[in-house]
Amino acid sequence: MATPVLRWCCPGRRWVFAGIGGVSRHGRGVPTGSTSSGKRGQSSVAQQPLITAQKPRKGEREWAAVVGLEIHAQIASNSKLFSGSQVDFAAPPNSLVSFFDASLPGTLPVLNRRCVEAAVMTGLALDCHINRRSLFDRKHYFYADLPAGYQITQQRLPIAVNGSLVYSVCVGKRRSQMVTKTAGVKQIQLEQDSGKSLHDSLRSQTLIDLNRAGVGLLEVVLEPDMSCGEEAAAAIRELQLILQALGTSQANMAEGQLRVDANISVHNPGEPLGVRTEVKNLNSARFLAKAIDYEIQRQINELENGGKILNETRSFDYKLGCTVPMRDKEGKQDYRFMPEPNLPPLLLYDSESLPTGTDPQQVINIDQLREQLPELPRVTREKLVQQYGMLPEHSFALLNEVGLLEFFQNVIKETRAEPKKVTSWVLNTFLGFLKQQNLAVSESPVTPSALAELDLLDRKAISSSAAKQVFQELWRSKGKTPAQIVAEKKLELMQDAEALEQLCRSTLEAHPQVVTDVKKGNPRAINKLIGLVRRATLGRADPTVIKEVLERQLSL
Amino acid sequence: MWTRRVWLGLRASAGGRRGFPSKADPQGSRRVTAELIEHLERLALVDFGSQEAVARLEKAIAFANRLRAVDTDGVEPMESVLEDRCLYLRSDNVVEGNCAEELLQNSHHVVEEYFVAPPEKHMEITPFCLWTPPSKHH
């Protein structure tokens, strides 16, 4: 796939069309501005994003991209949104289907309390206004996996509106700084999932499994506040962590529990927003950013070449690495929304408005749910930074891997080491090994206690390079303690000062040229000597001590 | 099927964009155009097979338009006759399902335990002949 040529990095990304082969086009005259037909909403002048300082060369235009997201998260509940059949990922086809899910005549929807609570909790976590009264509607379209011919959703008055999602992106040349960003949450609504269609190309027929039909979904609509694939991916990641912390959804993209559609448009800064396309089928965390960036660049290229952007729906082809128009969408879809006649308005209460003498099972108290909200990732990270003085990016890394935070906290409990040291052990060494062998924290052969013991040895009895060797051995052989390994491999620090002095002296004698470099004032030459001595001691001497001895011997 | 397409085409060329004037519509601005018929046929999977069906549609629209005679200024719309009912909340327990065999019996075409979807062009189309406008004398 041709990698798009981009000029600047996110955030506040300014996109520049650099022409074929990176040659900028001169003297071509400025193409007419982006088409204004069918632009989204009111034509508003887009806010100027942050700019990284680089002056555009003559003939190049600047572009800003606008990305909005629609996320569907499967609610973690035992039964479906409007029926009592089970919610399960893997089950024999059509075995988790009730008469209502199959849309047999005479069946009616009955709302699942747990799904409403999940929606309210998610709304509260995203700082939304919870509508005390919300409504259900029917969205009509024909498709084989939608037996009723309509989906029950909340189009007119959803359960939560006007919130915000705070997330962070890495910036800077070495991507070491974290910058906080916010994406507005337009609304959260409850809706039904559809069944699954499997295309049997051999017999050219479509097979339908309704196990998923009727499962509760939370649709979270994010405002077009993001400007590139990286920001979108970071926002999605944070939403995933929030949903998982709340327990409202497992939000696993690979299992289809979290699906994302993106609305993308480009425009010249200062001018009205451009025509947007909708990109569907972004169901892989890995390809999300790539797909969005591809579409942005495609639109820029199209406009730069004097073309137009169609207000269409596209799909991301993972094999080709590009977006393609979706075939059977002729003209705009007309969903003929109508109120769901079988469901009265959904009423929610707070402690003040709670009606007396009612069955508690039949009323939902928003204040009670708010009190019961678990700690959100953002708060957990802040606490880590406060308590252990770690860098924000480290707190992100700890929360980014399932079980890693718990592991870290267990090591802390068992050691008196400085938290910074533990952080380094866990995030660098431990996590490095996990990633290398593609293991989850739960599958780690090294336990928190072993790591705590190793750290203790590291400080007192062995050198850091020896510690790394021990770690490697711990990883490979289960059951052995760090102390055992140190004894076996004779990795204890050299206690014999005289032997060390001797080794240093012989190293100096063997490398007169390096000695001359050191005496000349080359600051890096001494490191070479230290390295040589370390090797000679088989990693059993502390580099700081070696340096001391060498410097003394060189009478520096 | 092609005869219907030809018929619609003839109608479109003959009547231009005028469509059929609606006698029952006093305002006379609501036309049922060929495009609208095609649009409705696609959306609702009904078949306006004949001029009679289109005439029936226009009568239906005219009938519904009589609602406009009522002055609703300042009146909150009622969205549901259930608006004063309580929306029952069910506990999150599994109480249904496990009836694949029963459900699959309803389908013409089944492969193992999957329903087989009809190919799109064979989707069931309902003839639009089920509604008759009410007579004026009730």
From TrEMBL, chain A:
Residues 32-51 have a biased composition (Polar residues). One of its GO terms (molecular function) is ATP binding. Its EC number is 6.3.5.-. Residues 406-554 form the Asn/Gln amidotransferase domain. One of its GO terms (cellular component) is mitochondrion. Its main location: mitochondrion. Gene3D superfamilies: 1.10.10.410. Residues 27-57 are annotated as: Disordered. GO terms for biological process: glutaminyl-tRNAGln biosynthesis via transamidation; mitochondrial translation. Pfam families: GatB_N, GatB_Yqey. Keywords: ATP-binding, Ligase, Mitochondrion, Nucleotide-binding, Protein biosynthesis, Transit peptide. It catalyses: L-glutamyl-tRNA(Gln) + L-glutamine + ATP + H2O = L-glutaminyl-tRNA(Gln) + L-glutamate + ADP + phosphate + H(+); L-aspartyl-tRNA(Asn) + L-glutamine + ATP + H2O = L-asparaginyl-tRNA(Asn) + L-glutamate + ADP + phosphate + 2 H(+). SUPFAM superfamilies: GatB/YqeY motif, Glutamine synthetase/guanido kinase. It is found in: Mitochondrion. InterPro entries: Asn/Gln-tRNA_amidoTrfase_suB/E, Asn/Gln-tRNA_Trfase_suB/E_cat, Asn/Gln_amidotransferase, Asn/Gln_tRNA_amidoTrase-B-like, GatB, GatB_Yqey_C_2, Gln-tRNA_amidoTrfase_suB_CS, Gln_synth/guanido_kin_cat_dom. Allows the formation of correctly charged Gln-tRNA(Gln) through the transamidation of misacylated Glu-tRNA(Gln) in the mitochondria. The reaction takes place in the presence of glutamine and ATP through an activated gamma-phospho-Glu-tRNA(Gln). Belongs to the GatB/GatE family. GatB subfamily. This is Glutamyl-tRNA(Gln) amidotransferase subunit B, mitochondrial. It comes from Phocoena sinus. The gene is GATB.
Automatic annotation (TrEMBL), chain B:
It comes from the Eukaryota. The gene is GATC. It catalyses: L-glutamyl-tRNA(Gln) + L-glutamine + ATP + H2O = L-glutaminyl-tRNA(Gln) + L-glutamate + ADP + phosphate + H(+). This is Glutamyl-tRNA(Gln) amidotransferase subunit C, mitochondrial. Its EC number is 6.3.5.-. Its main location: mitochondrion. Allows the formation of correctly charged Gln-tRNA(Gln) through the transamidation of misacylated Glu-tRNA(Gln) in the mitochondria. The reaction takes place in the presence of glutamine and ATP through an activated gamma-phospho-Glu-tRNA(Gln). It is found in: Mitochondrion. The keyword ATP-binding applies. Pfam families: GatC. It comes from Phocoena sinus (Vaquita). HAMAP family: GatC (MF_00122).
